[in-house]
Amino acid sequence: MTDAPDLTLWHAPLSRSMRILWLLEEIGCPYRLELIDLTDGSTRRPPYDVIHPVGRAPALRDGDTTIHESGAMTEWLCETRAPHLWRAPGEAGRLGWLDWLHFGETLCQHVANLTQQHVFLREPSQRSPVLIRLETARLSRALGLVERTVTESEWLLSEFSGVDCQVGYSVWIAGRFVDLAQRPALAAYRDRCAARPAFQRSLPGPEMRAIYDRDF
């Protein structure tokens, strides 16, 4: 009998927790996957409300410790299990790695705001056309920093790293809200991310309920 994995990831298919699932697949370490549904209220009830008091995804347990923020998960996993995907203090590229790690949350927040409007507010009367226009414009503008970078480089740093999972997921999802057809460098970066075998393994199977079923 093999020991149970130290790592457990609570994941809602296609949500921001996909960033961590993708990273775990890139690392290739054993982990246990627990699927959750963000649409039925179950994340605000036991047992998940004990695991993540805010009721959001993801949550990552490493041994006896639970982590609730994706950026912290990315840094911890890279530091402890995949130093080739990390940039250690004092190492070249460290500041850029940290900058992209946290910028990934800027992108993801715009995506989350649009997801709330288009997906979680089921009644059209609840949605705000003004907010949708503003958030779409903000997301498009934020993507510009990624676009400028990947025009000159295949990845965000000199080679693929953990921050490409953090940012690349948001670029991939952003294509549901922002037309990337006229932004070839950004679209090519999205496609490079999506072509990675680890990314493909992080996609939901047909039996999984995903939060997105179309573009907007």
From TrEMBL:
GO terms for molecular function: transferase activity. Residues 4-85 form the GST N-terminal domain. It comes from the Bacteria. The keyword DNA-binding does not apply. Keywords: Transferase. SUPFAM superfamilies: GST C-terminal domain-like, Thioredoxin-like. This is Glutathione S-transferase family protein. It comes from Paracoccus yeei.
